[in-house]
Specification:
Its main location: membrane. Keywords: Carbohydrate metabolism, Fucose metabolism, Glycoprotein, Glycosyltransferase, Membrane, Signal-anchor, Transferase, Transmembrane, Transmembrane helix. GO terms for molecular function: glycosyltransferase activity. It is found in: Membrane. This is O-fucosyltransferase family protein. By secondary structure, the chain is mainly α. It contains 21 helices and nine strands. Strands 3-2-1-5-4 form a five-stranded parallel sheet, with helices on one face. Strand 4, helix 8 and strand 5 form a beta-alpha-beta unit. Helix 10 packs across helix 18, helix 14 packs parallel to helix 15 and helix 14 crosses helix 21. The N and C termini lie far apart (about 70 Å).
Length: about 500
């Protein structure tokens, strides 16, 4: 009886072992198939579930993630890494970005594209700490570094820092230069590549507008989009707070984001002082002279405004919103830093639109404390809200306005009202001078903006004047379907 019992136990153990082995084989096969599926899933859709403004938001899943809705994507396991591209590196590219968040964002997209084109290894970019805001944030304080590196590994190698040997070498001698603005791919191949090979490490002192808007190969243009809409994902902390802002706003119904670029640095830099007191004008002029890299010092504010080159004042934007038909109960989120003149300058806007909110009113001081004194991180929150808004209206065509406009085009041509400031200034002066009745003024404002609502349009090309052309990041048409669908930018 003992012998028989022992044999039975051995048989049961053997059967259990065979079942365990079969389960292991089956599980391994399932994991392999899932990995293969992850590799071949279109990247535009694969990254939509990431949930952030910088994470390639496109389509329903991406919008739901921005709003904080649970689409099920968050419950999926992380997608398999894209296969690494193996290539012989021609050297390292270090970059110091300049400007605010969106100027740096566009510059980073250009730098990745240039590094890929020249087969260079890119060092994670350094961010501007000298600008007006003196923000100490590093790349990893704003963007998800590991996602940035891993999502582009099939295009180029990106490292967090130079190898130690090159770090020591570049402390003694580093070849630095600002590339020529608006350059095409031939300039980088003929002028920059030999320098990179010679010096092993090349440092670009500036990153803004270093690639042409037009005339580049399609693969370079679509790579710029892939970096912008997929690789540049905000940190989990920024995305979580941004989603909370968005969901709070959406619970109140539809909302408009007004990017009111009436801040001290913009007014000083542009020389636009319409509506300012003589004391304020003197203060803004002193500030302009205090920054040596702001080259233009003597500016005729009146002429510049008539040319449409000034941000609209809060009082002007109030009249424009009313003329466009926005009613008193419209929920308006103000995306901006501190308005020059404070609440005094917002009085007319607030009287016309009582439902005005800012992130400082929606979020608690404790929630915002980690982001205080970090203007780029605060701007990232505004960026997320701007993408998710029902309508986006910038009062000036600065970097944020243009990059958000392009991102909203990528998300299906979401409504963005691009104000014709030159025409508006003319109409405002006529109305305020009594030459136009209100109905005439309102009809003229609506007529002037019928074709400026973010619908599909061709990017304007002006040969020999790249600064005057339509900006690539405001209308990345190579990456957009004709009816709002997304092209595969993988």
């Amino acid at each position: 009886m003992v012998a028989v019992g022992g044999g039975g136990r051995r048989r049961r153990a053997w059967r259990w072992a065979m079942r365990a082995a079969a389960s292991a084989v089956l599980w391994t096969a399932v994991v392999q198939l899932a990995s293969i599926a992850g590799l071949f899933r279109p990247r535009v859709l694969a990254d939509c579930g990431g949930g952030g403004a910088g994470g390639g938001v496109g389509g329903v899943a991406g919008l739901a993630a921005l709003a904080g809705e649970d689409t099920g994507a968050a419950r999926l396991s992380p997608p398999a890494l894209v296969p690494k591209r193996i290539y012989k590196s021609n050297g390292y590219l270090r970059v110091t970005c300049n400007g605010g968040l969106n100027q740096m964002r566009a510059g980073i997209c250009d730098m990745v594209t240039i590094a890929r084109h020249l087969n260079l290894t890119l060092v994670v970019p350094e961010l501007d700490k000298r600008s007006f805001w003196a923000d100490p944030s590093d790349f990893g304080d704003i963007f998800d570094v590991d996602h940035f590196i891993n999502s582009l590994r099939d295009e180029l190698m990106i490292v967090k820092e130079l190898p130690l040997k090159l770090q020591l070498r570049t402390k003694k001698r580093l070849y630095s230069m600002p590339p020529v603005s608006w350059s095409n791919e031939t300039y980088y191949l003929k002028r920059i590549l030999p320098l990179a090979k010679k010096h092993k490490v090349i440092h670009f002192e500036k990153s803004d507008a270093r690639l042409a808007n037009n005339g580049l190969p399609i693969q370079l243009q679509t790579l710029r989009c892939r970096v912008n809409f997929q690789a540049l994902r905000f940190t989990p902390q920024i995305e979580a707070l941004g989603r909370k802002l968005i969901s709070t706003l959406q619970r109140s119904g539809q909302f408009v984001v007004l990017h009111l670029r009436y801040e001290m640095d913009m007014l000083s830099f542009s020389g636009c002082t319409h509506g300012c007191s003589s004391k304020e004008t003197e203060e803004l002029t002193r500030m302009r002279y205090a920054y040596p890299w702001w080259k233009e010092k003597e500016i005729d504010s009146v002429v510049k405004r008539l040319q449409g080159l000034c941000p609209l004042t809060p009082e002007e934007i109030t009249l424009v919103l009313e003329a466009l038909g926005f009613t008193k109960d419209t929920l308006i989120y103000i995306a901006s830093g501190e308005i020059y003149g404070g609440e005094r300058r917002l009085a007319a806007l607030r009287a016309a639109y009582p439902k005005i909110v800012k992130k400082e009113k929606i979020l608690s001081p404790d929630e915002l404390r980690p982001f205080q004194n970090h203007s780029t991180q605060m701007a990232a929150l505004d960026y997320m809200v701007s993408l998710a808004s029902d309508i986006f209206i910038p009062s000036y065509d600065g970097n944020m306005a243009r990059v958000v406009e392009g991102h909203r085009r990528y998300m299906g041509f979401r409504k963005t009202i691009v104000l014709d400031r030159k025409k508006l200034v003319e109409l405002l002066d006529l109305f305020q001078g009594g030459a136009l009745a209100w109905d005439e003024f309102s009809d003229a404002v609506k007529e002037a903006h019928k074709s400026r609502m973010g619908q599909p349009t061709e990017r304007r090309i002006i040969p020999g004047q790249p600064k005057e052309e339509d900006y690539f990041y405001a209308n990345p048409q190579e990456c957009l379907g004709s009816n709002g669908g997304l092209r595969d930018i993988s």
